[in-house]
Write a structure and sequence with these properties.
By secondary structure, the protein is an alpha/beta fold. It is built from six helices and five strands; from the N terminus they run βαβαβαβαβαα. The protein has one domain: HUPs (Rossmann fold, 3-Layer(aba) Sandwich).
């Protein structure tokens, strides 16, 4: 069975990786789907996010069960194109659940044949979000507890350039 794990992954965090590992224990194949939202400015390009994800999973014993793709549009349309009937969503806290529950209901209305399952990360990762990681990175904080080393390095490079530009 195949599942789709969508998100912006801007950047991928240890929480995302924990959910992905759990998903690979439940499904034969997991398609990580990097959402490209033209209305939202990302720190990393679509190509950079894909590369960061691929490097983050490289060498993991479950990596052969993962495929990384990008998409724009309705998630249920993409799921059908991928031949997927299950969406995976990570839920860290009640506020996540409320949002994800509404999205799951909308997806069910649009595509009754596609189900959503919710997975929780390890307890120590429940406060980690890409938004918080970006904020810590912007201010030059320590990132190693939240993202893989190559992601931390890429974030530092992006935000060093942004801060340099702002301080001109």
């Amino acid at each position: 069975m195949k599942a789709l794990y969508p998100g912006t992954f801007d950047p991928i965090t240890f929480g995302h990786l924990d959910i992905l590992e759990r998903a690979t224990s439940l499904f034969d194949e997991v398609v990580i789907t990097v959402a490209v939202n033209t209305k939202k400015e990302s720190v990393f390009t679509k190509e950079e996010r894909i590369e960061l994800i691929e490097k983050a999973i490289d060498g993991k014993e479950w990596a052969q069960k993962v495929k990384v793709v990008a998409f724009t549009g309705l998630l249920v349309d993409h799921a059908r194109e991928q031949g997927v009937q299950t969406l995976i969503r990570g839920v860290r806290q009640v506020s996540d659940f409320e949002y994800e529950f509404r999205m799951a209901l909308m997806n069910r209305r649009l595509a009754p044949d596609i189900d959503t399952i919710f997975l929780m990360p390890q307890e120590q990762l429940t406060f980690v979000s890409a938004t918080i990681v970006r904020e810590v990175a912007y201010w030059g904080g320590e990132l190693e507890h939240f993202v893989p080393p190559h992601v931390a390095k890429a974030l530092r490079g992006k935000y060093d350039a942004i801060r340099a530009k702002e301080n001109r």
